[in-house]
Amino acid sequence: MKIKAIFQKTYTKYIWIAILLLIWEMIATFSNVSPLVFPSLEQIAGALIDSIVTGEILWQMLFSLSLILVGLVIGMVLAFLMSSLALLSPVFESFVDTCVSIFHPLPGIALLPLIILWIGTGSKAILFIIVHSVLWPMILNMKAGFKSIPAVYKKIGQNYQFSKLEIIFKIYVPASLPYFIAGLKIGWARAWRATISAEMIFGASGGIGGIGWYIFNKRVFMDTAGIFAGLFMIIFVGILVEDFFFNKIEANTINKWGMS
Description:
Blueprint: H1 2-7, H2 12-30, H3 41-54, H4 56-88, H5 90-103, H6 112-118, H7 123-147, H8 151-159, H9 164-175, H10 177-202, H11 210-220, H12 224-252
């Protein structure tokens, strides 16, 4: 029981990361693997520090994050609108369900030839792929959240003579918050995948290129340590957002209100 409690702590994640890094360094030091294939942590740290000092990796990361943020906001707004309309109208619900069935299994990367044909290869094309990647899982989560709310909640709203919009905003949205946050987490992860894939293909769109282009560029010049520096940066930002954004939101809403 005590061991279980210890391993449920947030900091255990960092202990496991430290152990994995130690194993990494031992393999790099004591094996005969070429540094071009498997660089040591020292080489990766050196590449990372050089990129930070020149500002290259920071600008690329900021560019990718700005695209992801815009794509997430657009996806979230569209998902909310479509889920709300589906709640109000059985006809629109049928339409939304059909769209989800068609587009949710379709990877954004599979649409690249059409996107290049229709939009080109700039930031708008990457944004389109991000929105496509985050929209459908968010709709599924929001709809599941709305459906999980007991019917008595809606009746309470009707007794208070709330309009349909008031019932959505004052009852459905707060009561289904755990589903919203879960959908946001899925959208965040899928947005990263879509962004990195698109940036590697589209190149220096918007004059910068993003972290995907940074990694691809390092591969072209066989800078393996630089590739890992880019990957480590993505992992670092991912953990940072998970621990200091999503966990804080959950602690101040779901856990605080006893919704978990």
